[in-house]
Specification:
Two copies of one chain form a homodimer.
Chain A lengths: L9 H20 L6 H12 L5 H8 L3 H13 L3 E5 L7 E5 L1 H22 L4 H17 L6
Antiparallel strand pairs in A: 1-2
Chain A binds a DNA duplex (23 and 23 nucleotides) through helix 4.
Chain lengths: 146, 146
DNA sequence: TATTGTTATACTCTATAACTATA
DNA sequence: TATAGTTATAGAGTATAACAATA
């Protein structure tokens, strides 16, 4: 006989909290005309781990066609430049613009506001334990970019 | 000047981890013909916090019409009974069947398997810190049922 | 009239498949 | 032929709006 309750599992709590947090983050992003996946793309670019659209699709684990529309939107906002690689003109190399970096900073600001909401009411020790635990888990799960 | 990196925020990590975890949980649920929201409904029922479809919709924060189709599916699987309340025949009162409880136990099993995957490679101390931190956060965020 | 549940419809997000251009 | 990107199309998931039954 197993007495574990589903709402007490990590899977359930992480899934539910993730949805709540993404919803709150998303609401703040709307002010900048962005969705979470746009931020994922900006973050992927800034990390330097991918530049071409296909590499970004792999890193984000989304379809290449989705990267097209995300990049369209970000280009339209002036957040990135799209340039054909001279060495292989099939590749579209995406580069963050200064405007894109500023936009990313605004998104980061939005995220830290959500963080503040989440941790208000937690002791400093609890908040630090949470950060530390998530860092370990994120590293271990091989976090792709959302 | 702000040096916080977006991937280091709680919002980003919780959102991303939540998506990964939900995906893994979902893959295991498929074996039972369920999606995460079905599990949310079963969990809501088992909690005793809601019985009528409208109450469940409020608790889960989803549209009443979605509860209809989730309950349709669960009824079809024999996991719940639908009965009009004699006192107010507009209300459909949902009740977990024995089969429903068994199904919920299988879902819980799936969740604990995901938990095991997540925490393998973490020290016992790290795993406990994570559980504890999430418990605090979940309580504080007033976790609705996924 | 107001409320509960249901059905009909539409919208958002994302993937798959077909296509173009380069290699 | 194979690959990068694009466009066209389709599917999943969910919400909103219209409706029926009951209060």
């Amino acid at each position: 006989m197993n007495d574990v309750k589903l709402p007490e599992t990590l899977a359930f709590q992480l899934g539910t909290l993730g949805a709540v947090v993404t919803e709150r983050f998303s609401a703040r992003l709307a002010a900048h005309g962005l969705k979470p996946k746009h931020v994922g793309l900006l973050t992927a670019l800034e990390s330097g781990m991918a530049a071409s659209q296909l590499d970004i699709a792999k890193l984000m684990d989304v379809a290449p066609s989705l990267v097209v529309s995300l990049a369209d939107r970000l280009e339209e906002l002036g957040a990135l430049r799209r340039e054909r690689a001279p060495s292989d003109r099939r590749r579209q190399v995406l580069t963050l613009t200064t405007e894109g970096r500023e936009l990313l900073a605004l998104c980061t600001q939005a995220a830290t506001e959500v963080d503040a909401e989440l941790t208000q009411g937690l002791t400093a020790g609890e908040a630090e334990a949470l950060r530390s635990a998530l860092r370990v888990l994120a590293r271990h799960a091989g976090l792709p970019v959302t």
